[in-house]
Amino acid sequence: MAIKEKTNKQLFVDGILKENPIFKLALSMCPAVGISTSVMNGILLGTAVLFVQVCSSCTISLVRNYIHPKIRIPTYTLTIATWVTVIDLVLAAYVPVAYKAMGLFVRLIVAFAIITMRLEMFACKNPLPKSFWDGFGMGLGFMFAMMTLGFVRELLGSGMIMGYDVLGFKPLLYFVLPCAGFVTVGLMMGFFNWIEVVYERRKKG
Amino acid sequence: MKSIKSYHLLVGVLLIAALFLTGCEGAGHKFVKKTEFKDSDKIVLTFAGPVDEVWATNVANFSCYEKPDPDIVLTIKEAVLSPEKTKLTLIFEAPLNTGEAHILSTTNIMSEGQDMGAALLTVKKLYFGVLMTIFLGAALIKNFVFTKYLGLCVFFGCSQKRSTAIGMGMVFTIVIAFAATMAWALYQFVLKPYQLTFLNIVVFIGLVSLSVQGVDTILRKINPALFKAFGVYLVLVIANCIAIAVPLILADNEYTGWESFSLALGAGIGFLIALFLMACVREKLELAKVPPSFQGLPIAFVTAGLFALAFLGFSGLSIY
Fold it and tell me: ipTM of this model?
């Protein structure tokens, strides 16, 4: 791996912008489509993912010299599963209503490709502080993307943000319907690509 | 193309078999030939001979309750006798929970002046019907990809070509059926008796990885040609969140062994259908002129959104 020495700040910012898990890497799309109907859902699931990502990154980074390379993937999976169990039980105990709204998705964090990928590509080769910042950036990037999606869908679908009525009318009810998740994600990806295309064109001409 | 046709045949045969085999059984009295649920709020009794209209249309002659709660008596709104006087339809006030067995007791049945004795009848769906409901529910009505939004990474990754889609779908169905059955056994016989259910996530993810490894080893030894064709998809199964969602769902709902199996089979077939449909569209999209910023994933997402909208049409579908 040709990861150049990056400062902690760079690692952190990269996770949010340059390597954003949802919009740039297109990983762990399931919750992005499934429960991005409101900003609140995004914050809650984002927090859960942030917690699992940071904890797993730190754990793997601490024990990285003791893992036999042949069994590294099962080790990652079990580490993630342990931390997911922790956050699952905590959320179920303290915010039961929101936990119910998120359904299976909290427990399915265990199958998120983004977390395993960060462990494999970064945490198993880097010391604790760096892994922490990388995990923190990735987790925040995920949370940011989920909140953006939630913001767009909630605003367009029900005219509200965080449960407060801001528009006073409902522009397009379609966006809060569950099946609109695919279309919203597709449109936003297209939008970001379009910005890039325009930017490149400006730079050239 | 040959494999596609055989797959169509398989689904067709399954559906026809299901239509023939399902239905309802019941009875428990020599004069009552058949008892069955109709719609969501009716029970139909078929008698061996004509019954008295005065007796049959009096609602007070019948009482019905769900088998698990004998103290909650369900109110019957109306009793309608068919013109030939052998079919009696009991209409209930509230929709019935047709998944449960119902006990229906009557006073002495009167037929052409004769007293045929009181009857205690059991009305229930055929177990196969319950299994088919779970199967269809997982495959179409609550399709894991289009209505539950799970397994999207693999769904978008493997739906570029039809051959890939079929291979991935098949392998996934086999592995998930295998893993879900094992997960059910482990959950019912180990985790629940020892109160270790909080370990669900850790155990199930390990189990899925193990099943993948198991299928890999078995396939490699038994049928190397098949392994060569489908082996590459095996690794991807672990990255699919449906594989971990199915064991969690069957543990949450306390499904029995056969129910777990049909849920897994439904999830697998549903995933196969979704992949195949998507692959068909994406092959056509290759030839279409898509705006540069929408090429690749964005347009695939929008297409999937249209599919999801179409799959909404299955909601409320109930055959059994």
Answer: 0.83
